[in-house]
C-alpha cells in the first residue's frame, strides 16, 4: 500500500466515526490533552473530519492557528485575528500578524505509527516542527493508527493522544 493509499484509508476510517461516537471520543481526547496545555498553544481548526479539540479550547486558552505563508511554510498567528478561507479548505488568520513562540502545538493527524504522524503529504508541519521547542502533541482517533515507513524528514512527536491512550 502506498503512502497515498494509507492516507486515503485513514481519512476514510476517520470519516466512519459516527457523530455520537465522535463527540464522546473528542471529549475523552480533550480530557487527556488538558493537563499538557500551558502558555501559548498552537492548534488547528479541523477539516475533513479531523478530531475537533479547537471548539473545546478556543474560549479558554491563548490559541494560535496556522497560516500558509507560501507553498512550503506555515506560521502560527493569534486565533483572535479575523479569519478567511485558506488553501486546502482550511480557515486561517487574515493579513500579516506577529508570530509568537509557542509552548504547545496540537497537530492534526491523518494516520499515526508510534509517535510519528502521517499528514496530508505536503510536509508543512514537519518543516515547522523540526525547529520548534514546543511540546508536540498529535491528536487522533484510535482508528487512524496504521503502519508506514518513516522518512528522514518526518518529525517524531512528543506524544500522540487518542480517545483511549497517550503514546510517548
UniProtKB/TrEMBL annotation:
Pfam families with a match to the protein in the record: 5-FTHF_cyc-lig (PF01812)
Catalytic reactions of this protein: (6S)-5-formyl-5,6,7,8-tetrahydrofolate + ATP = (6R)-5,10-methenyltetrahydrofolate + ADP + phosphate
Magnesium keyword on record: yes
Keyword annotations of the record: ATP-binding, Ligase, Magnesium, Metal-binding, Nucleotide-binding
Single GO MF descriptor: ATP binding
SUPFAM superfamilies hit by this protein: NagB/RpiA/CoA transferase-like (SSF100950)
Residues engaged in binding substrate: 45, 50
Residues annotated as transmembrane: none
Essential cofactor(s): Mg(2+)
Its EC number(s): 6.3.3.2
InterPro entries documented for this protein: FTHF_cligase, FTHF_cligase-like_sf, NagB/RpiA_transferase-like
UniProt record similarity statement: Belongs to the 5-formyltetrahydrofolate cyclo-ligase family.
PANTHER family: 5-FORMYLTETRAHYDROFOLATE CYCLO-LIGASE, ATPASE INHIBITOR/5-FORMYLTETRAHYDROFOLATE CYCLO-LIGASE
NCBIfam families: MTHFS_bact
Name of the protein this chain belongs to: 5-formyltetrahydrofolate cyclo-ligase
Protein source organism: Holdemanella biformis
Amino acid at each position: 500500500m502506498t503512502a497515498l493509499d494509507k492516507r486515503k484509508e485513514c481519512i476514510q476510517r476517520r470519516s466512519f466515526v459516527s457523530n455520537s461516537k465522535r463527540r464522546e471520543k473528542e471529549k475523552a481526547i480533550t480530557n487527556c490533552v488538558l493537563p499538557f496545555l500551558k502558555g501559548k498553544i498552537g492548534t488547528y481548526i479541523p477539516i475533513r473530519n479531523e478530531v475537533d479539540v479547537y471548539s473545546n479550547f478556543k474560549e479558554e486558552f491563548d490559541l494560535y492557528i496556522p497560516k500558509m505563508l507560501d507553498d512550503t511554510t506555515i506560521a502560527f498567528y493569534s486565533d483572535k485575528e479575523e479569519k478567511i478561507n485558506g488553501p486546502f479548505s482550511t480557515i486561517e488568520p487574515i493579513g500579516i500578524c506577529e508570530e509568537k513562540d509557542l509552548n504547545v502545538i496540537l497537530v492534526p493527524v491523518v494516520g499515526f505509527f508510534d509517535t510519528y504522524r502521517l499528514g496530508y503529504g505536503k510536509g508543512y508541519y514537519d518543516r515547522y516542527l523540526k525547529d520548534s521547542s514546543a511540546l508536540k502533541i498529535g491528536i487522533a482517533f484510535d482508528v487512524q493508527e496504521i503502519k508506514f515507513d518513516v522518512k528522514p524528514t518526518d518529525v517524531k512527536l512528543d506524544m500522540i493522544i487518542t480517545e483511549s491512550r497517550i503514546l510517548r
